UniProtKB/TrEMBL annotation:
Keywords: DNA-binding, Transcription, Transcription regulation. Belongs to the BlaI transcriptional regulatory family. This is BlaI/MecI/CopY family transcriptional regulator. The keyword Lipid biosynthesis does not apply. It comes from Cytobacillus citreus.
């Protein structure tokens, strides 16, 4: 598999819509979901979609007047990559550093602590 590159925020927003919907997805569907809200014009969305195709995140097919798009990278694979890079860059792959930073300004609730302990016990098994 080619190296997955980090997505700019606008392209990530588009991919979130793609991942949340059953493929294929169309530009019209994306305009309804986020394009109108972001006040994107159709050419802007088409440019962003083309970039996602070029980067290997989407595959496209022409069906009549409309293009359809299919994800080539799963949300899970992308998030695993991004989380791994984040942990390495900011926390030197230390889970404890991450948790300390996360809860540095607020105390975790009893429920959060219970869930974290449950997760840790299950993970070790």
């Amino acid at each position: 598999m080619e190296t997955i590159k980090r997505l700019p925020d606008a392209e990530f927003e588009i991919m979130r819509v793609v991942w949340e919907n059953e493929p294929p997805i169309t530009t019209a569907m994306i305009m309804v979901k986020i394009g109108n809200e972001r006040k994107w014009k159709p050419p802007t969305l088409l440019t962003l979609m083309s970039r996602l195709v070029e980067r290997g995140f989407l595959q496209t097919e022409k069906k009549g007047k409309e293009r359809t798009y299919y994800p080539l990278i799963s949300k899970e694979d992308y998030l695993e990559l991004e989380t791994g890079k984040f942990m390495e860059q900011y926390h030197e792959n230390s889970f404890l550093s991450f948790v300390n930073t996360l809860y540095n300004t607020k105390k975790p609730t009893e429920r959060e602590l219970d869930e974290l302990l449950k997760w840790a016990k299950e993970w070790r098994e």
